[in-house]
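To whoever is on call:

I kicked off a structure prediction for a single chain this morning and the downstream step that reads the tokens threw a length-mismatch warning. I double-checked the sequence; it's 94 residues and nothing unusual in it as far as I can see. Pasting both halves so you can look.
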Amino acid sequence: MPKAYIVASINVTDPESYETYKNAAAKVTKETGGRLLVGGGRTEAIEGTLHNRIVVIEFDSIEAARAAAAGYSALRHTRGTSAPDYNSVIVEGM
């Protein structure tokens, strides 16, 4: 069974408030068996516009990634205005 990944591109405007969401999201990641591969750090755009935070989380299956995505969506209110521009996708690996 191929792995699946959630890739998120986030524009964090209030890092201090974002910590509340980040901590809650980490619990969802752990509960769904995810492994954080990329969680911030320096980014460099090759083409196009880039948000200031990129996150990549690996899951053992697309079903586990979907379960995590539902958990992250339920936390949307926690993210609030600390990261108003948030995009994420599930990508199946090879």
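Update from on-call: the warning came from a stale cache, not from the record. Cleared it. Sanity check on the structure: The longest helix spans residues 15-31.
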